[in-house]
Each structure stands twice: as C-alpha cells, then as structure tokens.
Amino acid sequence: MAKKLTLLLLAILLLQQASSGESRSITNDLPLSMVSDGVLEKTPKPNSIWLPGRLFSSDSCDQTYGFLPCTTTVLGNTFLIIVYGYLMFLSAKLLSNGSEILLQILGPGIVGGFFLPLLSSIPDATIILASGLSGDTETAQSQVSVGMGLLAGSNVMLLTILWGTCLLVGKCDLENSVAVDQKDEKRFSLTGSGVSTDIWTSYAARIMVFSIIPFVIVQLPQVFHRTSDNRLAILISLIVAISFVIAYSLYQVFQPWIQKRKLALSKHKHVMSEILIQLKTNALGRLLTNDGDPNKVVIEKLFKTLDQDSDGYLSTADLRSLIIGIQFDDMDINIDEAISQVMRDFDTSHDSKIDVDEFFKGISRWINKAKRVAIMERGKLPPSMKLLEDFDKKTKKEQDQFMDQMDEVVEDVKNVKWHASKAVGLLLLGTIVAAVFADPLVDAVDNFSTATSIPSFFVSFVILPFASSSEIVSTLIFVSRKKQRTASLAYSEIYGSVTMSNILSLAVFLGLVYIRNLTWSFSAEVLVIVVVCILMGAIASFRTTFPLWMSLVAMLLYPLSLLLVYILDYVFGWS
C-alpha cells in the first residue's frame, strides 16, 4: 500500500509541476541585451500550457476544480491523459486489493457475488458520470460520448484483444478436440493448438449474451422510427438494467462459480506443494539437482518406497497412504478428491494406476510449475533448496485468500480489525481517487479530441478501457498456467466483466442521459456492442475448445468495430 501511495503522490506532483508557466520567444532581430527577464512585465499569466506550432498551439482553457492544469495542445493533453489514466488505473488496483482483503475476511458469498462486482465497476462508473454531469446540457451532450466510448471500448477490448491474447498465452496441444494440460509442443499451429474450458464457462458466456437486452430496448424507437418514444425507451431500459444488476448479483451470491473455482484451484495447488515437501523429506537424497532440475534417480527410489506391494505401479491405496501422512495445516482437505486430482495429473495412460515413468514426469511437471511461480514472483529462480518451500508458502497464502469462510466466524481470521481497517482504507482511497480524477480525465480526452479533430468517442474507446481495467494482468497470469481449470477461470472473468458492464455501467449511463434530458444518438455504438457480444458469446456458448486461429478472428474484430462505427456515423450519418 505504501508503494501505491508513493506512486499516487508522484503522479499528483507531476500534475502540479505541469501547471501553467510563461515565457517569451526571442526573435532573430532582437539583441540579447534587449531581452527582458519578465520581472517587470505586467502581462496577465495564462491558465494553460503554451507551446509553439500546430500541434502545440494553445488557447485559453478552463482548469478543473480551478487549480488542476489544463491545455488545448495535443502534446499537453497527451501528457494529462497519461497521468490521469494512470491515476484511474491505480484507483482500480486499490479497489481490487481492498476487495480481495474483504473476501478473505467475509467469504465469497455476498462479498464475492455482490460487492466485488460493484466495487470493480467504480472507475468506469465515475468516468461515465463525469462525462455527463459537468457543465450545461450542451457541454454534457458533447462530453457524454466519452462515457459511451469507455462503455463500448471496455466490452470490445475484453472480448477481442484480451480474449485473443488469453488464447495465445494459454494455448496447449489439441488432441481429440481437447486441449492437453501443460503440453505445448505444436507451438503456434493454428488448428493443432488452442484452449479448452469447462461447461460452466459456456454458461457464463450465455448470461453475457442475455445481458445485452437493455441495449436492444433502448434502440427500439430508432429501429421503428419512433424517436418521440426515446425517453420512454431509456427509462424502461434503465429499469431493466437495474433489475438485471440485482438479479445477477443475487445469482452470483448463491452460485459463486468463479469464487468456488478459485478456491478449488488454490486447494489443489497447496495439496501439490505439500506432497512435494513430503516427498523431499522422505527422499533418499536430494529431490532436485544443483540446477533445480528433478533428480531422476532419487525420484525413482521414492517411487519404489511408495509402491507398497512392489507391483511396479502406484494405486489409489498407495496414494491414500501418502496423503494421509501429510499434515495440511488444519486445511479442510477431501482425501478422495485429493487422490483423484493426483491421479488425473499423473495417470496419462488413464488406466487408474501410475507407473514409474508417469510418476517421474508428473513430479517434473509439478517442480517446473513451482519454478514458474518462483520466477513470476522473484524475477529469477531461487536456490533449489528453497524452491519447494517458497512454492509451498505461496500456495498456502493463495489458498488462504480464497478459503470459503461462509460458515466461519470472523474471529477465526487473525488480526481481523487490522485487515478490515486496511480494506476500508484501500476502498476509500480508491473511490476518492476515481471520483477526483475522473472529471479531469474526461476534460483531457475532450480537449485532446478538439485539438486533433478526432471524435472523443474514438479517443475514449481506445485509451480509457486500459486505464480503468485492473483485471487484465491477473487474467493473463491465470491463463498462462496452461490448464483447463485456469483457462476456464480467466474466460469466466472476461464474460463476467462484460456482463457487469452491459448492465451496471449501462444503468449509470442511461440514468445520466435520462436525468439530464440528453439526446440518445448512439445507434452505431450500441450496434457494435451487440454484434461483438452476440458473436463472441455464441462462439463460447456452444463450444468449449477454441483453436488458435480464433484468436486472430477475435483480435480482428477490434479494428473492424472502430471501422464500423466510423462508417455508420460519418458515412451513413447515423449520429
């Protein structure tokens, strides 16, 4: 948290240093002795950054809150968008971290299903509100396209760029139309590699498609050429969107798919790390070589030790004896489920027993996974002796974060008051940062649009989704583990984020348009959202395996979406 506060203060300091200054140009015909230092000059100081040239020319501008810097120059507004965008990204991270702490204390039910989606939507909601609340009706009508650009850009970016990138990062070899976990030998084969998800992820995609109904309702007057009913359609769509937010949140409370999946994944990883620690303790030698590679001789000796009946195979009974002898730090571990998970990871021949070769390859995969986690955390590989201990601590911490505490009392969590105070502090700080800097960010985007003659919708469509979204990095980390379980979780988060944007962010936008009596002129933008959601949702609803070539199709939809809006608005005159 201290690091985030330091970065926040640094960004604010940069804004302060960007405040207005003044100088005069030196012409060639003016002697240096005649140059004034400006001390005795009485000319009024401008309220904007001044730089020469077409890209740098500046007129007067209104400072947000009366003190934040402003400019009408291209480069000046580019700088402001970067700084304000980073502050909004920092706000999203603060809200995300605070939400995770609350999840540890209160459990995934109400917190994970209701509060977390609401909190994660605060940055988007504040930007949308700022785009239409400030100024008179004419100014609000001009700037509200920034909010629509964010709304459309977030959905399209998640379903095209992030969706396709997840497929590239998480790809595995396809065998019998199913991705094989952690096997990536075909590299970039467009048809031979890809990603598989579970059926629950398909259900999440279907819910996402269902969530576009409010967009369809608000467009009905334009479809039937009854523009006089626009306000009624906006009001009905607003009511439907709010109803969907409540229904979806309650559904998540009672069916927390993503939270349960995170918990199951973290438990499995911790069981894996504990087994590695146990094997290392019982090994007749070092389990790892000096280079951190699996020691084949020692692992084969371990296999013979675990093979109680010496038949050359490890059965479920042998695995049960191993797992029962492990102390799991009072974790609620289902022994039968743990045995099944180990068998699934090791038994590649699917004959319900593990031979020595499968045992060595399975242990090697687990050790390599521990290496990847260590490199991700430290940036380098730790000494081989600390590798498994560090991996065990990491998995234990991750398991604690997602432990289902629905039936536990709050006192079971250590330092509850401290963690609760920290969570509240992070949430308040994130909300304050979002509320304060959303308006100047919208002003900077609007001024940049004016300076470059690029419509503000396109500027916000491309830039703002990356500033207000904090789940991009975590989603890519999940899918990089190259397993069906983690791929399902990553894509479920994408579909869930788009669903909340379609209903919650849209509800905020519709409320703003209705209350301020703004004109609804976003037919092209809505069409893009509907088309992308239906197309990507239909693909994910009726199949669970996605070949690599689909990533190219998904990413191609992003520039095509921008092109479609431009053609409809500026060629066919929809706007």
From TrEMBL:
Major subcellular site:
membrane
GO CC terms in record = plasma membrane; vacuolar membrane
Q: Where is the EF-hand domain?
A: 294-329, 334-369
Q: Name one Pfam family in it.
A: Na_Ca_ex
Q: Which Gene3D superfamilies match?
A: EF-hand (1.10.238.10), NCX, central ion-binding region (1.20.1420.30)
Q: List the SMART domains hit by this protein, alphabetically.
A: EFh (SM00054)
GO biological process entries: calcium ion transmembrane transport; intracellular calcium ion homeostasis; sodium ion transport
Please name the GO terms that the record assigns under molecular function: calcium ion binding; calcium:proton antiporter activity
**Localisation:** Cell membrane
Q: Which UniProt keywords apply?
A: Antiport, Calcium, Calcium transport, Cell membrane, Ion transport, Membrane, Metal-binding, Repeat, Sodium, Sodium transport, Stress response, Transmembrane, Transmembrane helix, Transport
Provide the topology term for how it sits in the membrane.
Multi-pass membrane protein
Q: Which family does it belong to?
A: Belongs to the Ca(2+):cation antiporter (CaCA) (TC 2.A.19) family.
Query: What is the protein's given name?
Result: EF-hand domain-containing protein
Which species expresses this protein natively?
Answer: Prunus persica
